[in-house]
Amino acid sequence: MKRFFTPAIFLCILLLNLWFLHSPLLGSIFFVLYVILLCKHVSSITKNSLAGPIVTLSSFIILNTILYYAYGTTPVTTSVVMLLSLLFFIPKKEQGHTERFKDVLTKWSAWKQHTFHPFLYTKDILCALVVTFFDTSLLGFLWLHRTIDLMPSPWQAVDAGFFLIFTVATILLTYIVLTSRSRHISTALVSLHLFVMYAIAALLYPLGYGFDAFIHRATESWIFQYGFITPKQPYYIGQYSFVVFLSHITGLSIHLIDVYLVPLLAALLIPFTVAFSYAKKFNMRQNHALIHILAIALVPFLSFHLTTPHNLVVLLSLLTVFTTLLYQKNKENWHIPLLLTLTALLTHPLIGAPLFGFFLTTLFLKHTKKTSIKHLWLGLSTFGQIFLLPIMFTVNNLRTGHGWPMFGNPFLELPKFFELFVRPYWYLKHAPIFWEMIYTWERMIVPVCVLISLLGFFLYKKKPAADYLYPLTAMGMFLSAWLLRSWITFPDVVVYEQGDYPMRLIHASMLFLLPWFLYGLYRIAKALYIEHDKYWRTILVILGAGLLTVSFYFSYPQRNIKSRFPGFNVTQADFDAVEWIHKHETGFSFSPTILPDPTQIGVVGTIQSGEETITKDEHDYNYIVLSNQLVSATALTKFGFAKTFNTPLGELFYYAIPTGGPLYQQYGKMLYQGQKRAYMETAMDLVGVDTSYFVVNSYWANADRIIEGAKQTADSWEVIDNGDVWVFVYER
């Protein structure tokens, strides 16, 4: 009963904090302690170290999703989930005194081996401390350079010294992992290094980064306040309910949990889960498998720096691919990839469905003895992967009332597919030779990774039929992306976004080649290590660290002499602009020059003015705002889904999103076809209001000309933050 008593006490403290104390510090500490106990206990009862974190994570997400659809996500359902998790601790059978004594001796021996042994080697522990110092210094540097101003590329906050320190830390990390006998210390160091790579955006942009993440956080905030959002859609709920659950049980803000969720999960789960499965599959030493995990980051688009349902499912897919390898070696591990695929399916069905099909085929292959039947399953699986997503997207289009998409000849429209691989327009030609060499390597990364994957696949002898499923699934998803881009055109999606999902599908297909990519690298490294002396081995490690640093650089948007990324980030000026519009409509006087609380929705929130706290109730929001996506995302962050208008064209949000919507079309006309009052009046007619706002950011192309044109047609305007944003008012 001792194993039940301690977590029960922790759970009582968590529930007490949830309902009465509301302390983020208390909630966070005891939730982490409770989860550690839960993971260790699940691992012990299943006799599988992977089961603890995977079963815990998947169970929380699946239970919260089920309760969300049945009721919602509230403090009540959070309490229910936590109480249900306590069932894991109910003892099935008490151990005898002899068994307990043997268990204690085993744990003591393992603890001594993994804890004390490294300290016998001073050089190893010093290297570990140096790596920790370098990585924590990089994190501290990023924290000190966080900004609420315009910074399109995170690399504008750092200099060459940042990348030099990262490279040196990678070299030392490689040395300590390959020489240390402590798996726990090595795993912790790799996790910390990955967190440095994945936490850049979360640390540098306290207001948030990207665009999609703002939409998802706004939805999570709405669910946190109201329990659910209608209509209850069949996608994204896995992430939404889990983030809201974590916010309830820990007391931390939705914003804080959301921005760090995927970076933290990736840094913690990838080294432990992937390295263990990879080592078992290919019969290699754990430390070799662990250092190869860093090679996953060589593929720049497999970066887990943003929390979105898509990125969460990519992470779950990565874990599924490698744990399925383990299942192929041992039938007893089937429940781990199954839970991961179910979790992915509940989080993002349009991405989770191919993963679920992949695992089902693995099950069939595992339980089929006839070779001809196995070949049939492989063929059916590949064929299904090709057509599954085009069919699902079409059904979803019909379900949401957008009608049938337009179908074309995929062979005649093949150029559309090839356009996905063309470099964006912001890549300049004829840059200095150094930058041309760097960006030539960028184009070569994926082809080289695919070639190494094929090399690894062919070098691995005595492959069972299930191993062929990996490259066939990758090929099926690649061809599915071709059909999705060349065969189907979706209405209400702007032209430049038609290729988004096909490109994501191409990226996801690479996940199924990763085991063979890592094995190919292993065989190459092994051959070079055997054939060359220590000097050349050192050169190999330095080269690998350098290539990892280059891929690290490519994993975030760049602004340099070769690449001029045109995107922007949400700034304080954007928050001040939406605050001013709200103030102008409500007559509520306050100074908006504050760092807004991203968890406040539906109301202005609380504004601190000296000792006083001022609040304001909701109002009718009978106006529209034509602005770019980031300003609209800011409004979502600050006021949530405050207002939608029922129109003949469907429901329209009072800010101009989505980009394929009619309000955004009018915004585009205001930007590029002259700042005519008729465009604003047409927008007002769409929703039946008499007030509209046209927002222009100073960083927009031809902003000066647009601003001067709007001055000629607007009734009035307001200059925000010394001209960073201009707000033009149109009334009738």
From TrEMBL:
<feature type="transmembrane region" description="Helical">
    <location>
        <begin position="235"/>
        <end position="252"/>
    </location>
</feature>
<feature type="transmembrane region" description="Helical">
    <location>
        <begin position="190"/>
        <end position="215"/>
    </location>
</feature>
<keyword id="KW-0472">Membrane</keyword>
<feature type="transmembrane region" description="Helical">
    <location>
        <begin position="468"/>
        <end position="485"/>
    </location>
</feature>
<keyword id="KW-1133">Transmembrane helix</keyword>
<feature type="transmembrane region" description="Helical">
    <location>
        <begin position="157"/>
        <end position="178"/>
    </location>
</feature>
<keyword id="KW-0812">Transmembrane</keyword>
<protein>
    <recommendedName>
        <fullName>Glycosyltransferase RgtA/B/C/D-like domain-containing protein</fullName>
    </recommendedName>
</protein>
<feature type="transmembrane region" description="Helical">
    <location>
        <begin position="505"/>
        <end position="522"/>
    </location>
</feature>
<feature type="transmembrane region" description="Helical">
    <location>
        <begin position="376"/>
        <end position="395"/>
    </location>
</feature>
<feature type="transmembrane region" description="Helical">
    <location>
        <begin position="334"/>
        <end position="364"/>
    </location>
</feature>
<feature type="transmembrane region" description="Helical">
    <location>
        <begin position="125"/>
        <end position="145"/>
    </location>
</feature>
<feature type="transmembrane region" description="Helical">
    <location>
        <begin position="444"/>
        <end position="461"/>
    </location>
</feature>
<feature type="transmembrane region" description="Helical">
    <location>
        <begin position="534"/>
        <end position="556"/>
    </location>
</feature>
<feature type="transmembrane region" description="Helical">
    <location>
        <begin position="50"/>
        <end position="70"/>
    </location>
</feature>
<feature type="transmembrane region" description="Helical">
    <location>
        <begin position="259"/>
        <end position="279"/>
    </location>
</feature>
<feature type="transmembrane region" description="Helical">
    <location>
        <begin position="285"/>
        <end position="304"/>
    </location>
</feature>
<feature type="transmembrane region" description="Helical">
    <location>
        <begin position="6"/>
        <end position="38"/>
    </location>
</feature>
<feature type="transmembrane region" description="Helical">
    <location>
        <begin position="311"/>
        <end position="328"/>
    </location>
</feature>
